[in-house]
From TrEMBL, chain A:
Pfam families in the record: NHase_beta_N
Protein's UniProt name: Nitrile hydratase beta subunit
SUPFAM superfamilies: Electron transport accessory proteins
Span of domain Nitrile hydratase beta subunit-like N-terminal: 17-91
TrEMBL record, chain B:
UniProt xrefs under NCBIfam families: nitrile_alph (TIGR01323)
Organism (species): Roseovarius litorisediminis
Domain of life of the source: Bacteria
Compositional bias (Basic and acidic residues): 1-13
Pfam families linked: NHase_alpha
Family per record: Belongs to the nitrile hydratase subunit alpha family.
Enzyme's top EC category: lyase
GO molecular-function term, one example from the UniProt record: transition metal ion binding
Positions of region (Disordered): 1-22
Lineage: Bacteria, Pseudomonadati, Pseudomonadota, Alphaproteobacteria, Rhodobacterales
Protein name in UniProt: nitrile hydratase
From TrEMBL, chain C:
Lyase listed as a keyword: yes
Superkingdom of this protein's organism: Bacteria
Keyword field: Lyase
One MF annotation (Gene Ontology) recorded for this entry: nitrile hydratase activity
Pfam families assigned to the protein according to its UniProt record, in alphabetical order: NHase_beta_C (PF02211)
Enzyme Commission code(s) on record: 4.2.1.84
Name of the molecule in the record: Nitrile hydratase subunit beta
Length: 101, 216, 87
């Protein structure tokens, strides 16, 4: 996107929430263990298209990229992911309630 | 960093900057939060990572802040030999001060009377996070990444930095394996200040290049 | 005399670290950075060759032409050897 026309830079910020810090930690830890590379994450982010940049927040895009790379590395299957996400959703309506235990 | 407990939830409360974290734990579960929980649980069950490793990594990132970079800058302001080592290899100079920056490849670029440096990553959001902590939100925006390489002076004006026409602006796009930190110029009128006092003048933005150090 | 180089202007699809706005632009090598794994292989889970990496300095006039905000300001970027042509 370097050099493309764009508007004023939004200067409001936020401190990171726990789920965002966890995604950041998963990125670093999985990279350190050789499950994927930062280049693999960037490739997955780019493949989401320009659209994703507008529609999703930073760490939303990064968990999608982490998941894409873990699937490609065979760490778990799509079936396992789908079943687990369904189970997580059934635990409760909020992030706190959806934790295991 | 000292680390004496592995409670997952002890990061809540106040951030290092003194702001409450977003109260995400009692808002409706989003699709992406659901994915984060599922991915994390699967990684743990498969034996790839442990909850303790996640807690330690979050602590390590929380412990990194612009204050680390400010200490490095202040040292360079008072110690010419250290400044030379910083300009030769900023990663090793930071490690010499005891900062755990992992494998970070860091280059320091020096602001002078006639040169101003500005850091950006147009391809993603590369930032010297292992020294300064996580980047500010604006650094990751489309607006900053698009414009910093094309109209850096206009961007600087939005951040309140109006450079004389005679100053050369050097923009650094972190496109690959290096990360960058700006060594700001030491403000005038600080001759009698201690290294610790000097560090308090060094802002995060002054090390990205979108700001200048505070005046004493 | 500094090494003058031009960034290749090819536009293959996929993950590439040479920014599009610098393709075909001429600059000079500001410093060599050593050799790093080729991101074009790493991004696809392939075993990566080590490729020399350089910091290349461009003038804003070279990149943006008459639209440059201040022609003599500069931009540095890290470009892999296989994306550079020596002039």
């Amino acid at each position: 996107m370097g050099g493309l026309p764009a508007g004023a830079i939004p200067q409001d910020g936020h401190d990171f929430a726990l789920w965002e810090k966890r995604i950041d930690a998963l990125m670093v830890l999985c990279g350190g263990k050789g499950l994927f590379t930062v280049d693999g994450l960037r490739r997955a982010l780019e493949d989401m298209g320009e659209d994703a940049f507008e529609k999703h927040s930073y760490y939303e895009r990064w968990i999608a990229a982490v998941n894409q790379n873990l699937i490609e590395a065979g760490v778990y299957s799509l079936e396992e992911l789908g079943q687990r996400m369904a189970a997580v959703s059934r635990r409760g309506a909020t992030y706190g309630e959806a934790q295991d235990g | 960093m000292p680390h004496d407990h592995h409670d997952h939830f002890h990061h809540e409360g106040l951030s290092p900057s003194g702001h409450p974290y977003r109260s995400d734990n009692d808002e409706p579960l989003s699709y992406w939060q659901c994915m984060e929980i599922a991915v994390r649980e699967l990684l743990i069950e498969k034996g790839q990572i442990t909850p303790a490793e996640i807690a330690v990594q979050i602590d390590a990132m929380d412990a990194r802040s612009p204050a680390n970079g400010a200490a490095v800058v202040a040292r360079a302001w008072v110690d010419p030999a250290f400044k030379q080592r910083l300009l030769d290899n900023a990663g090793d100079a930071s490690r010499e001060m005891g900062f755990d920056i992992g494998p970070l490849n860091l280059i320091a670029v020096e602001n002078t009377a006639d040169t101003h440096n500005l850091i950006v990553c147009t391809l993603c959001s590369c930032y010297p996070r292992n020294l300064l902590g996580l980047p500010p939100d604006w650094y990751k925006t489309r607006e900053y990444r698009s414009r910093a390489v094309r109209e850096p002076r206009a961007v600087l004006r939005e951040f309140g930095v109006d450079l004389p026409a005679g100053t050369t602006v050097r923009v650094h796009d972190s496109t690959a394996d290096m990360r960058y930190i700006v060594l700001p110029a030491r403000p005038n009128g600080t001759d009698s200040m201690t290294e610790t006092e000097l560090a308090s003048l060094v802002t995060r933005d002054s090390m990205i290049g979108t700001g200048l150090p505070r005046q004493p | 005399m500094a090494d003058r180089v031009r960034v290749k202007s090819m536009m293959p699809p996929g993950h590439v670290r040479a920014p599009a706005y610098l393709r075909g632009k001429t600059g000079y090598i500001e410093r060599p950075l050593g050799a790093f794994g080729n991101p074009e292989q790493l991004a696809y889970g392939l075993k990566a060759d080590k490729k020399p990496l350089y910091r290349v300095r461009f003038t804003m006039a070279e990149i943006w032409g008459d639209d440059a905000e201040n022609p003599s300001d500069t931009l540095d970027a890290e470009i892999y050897d296989h994306w550079l042509e020596r002039l």
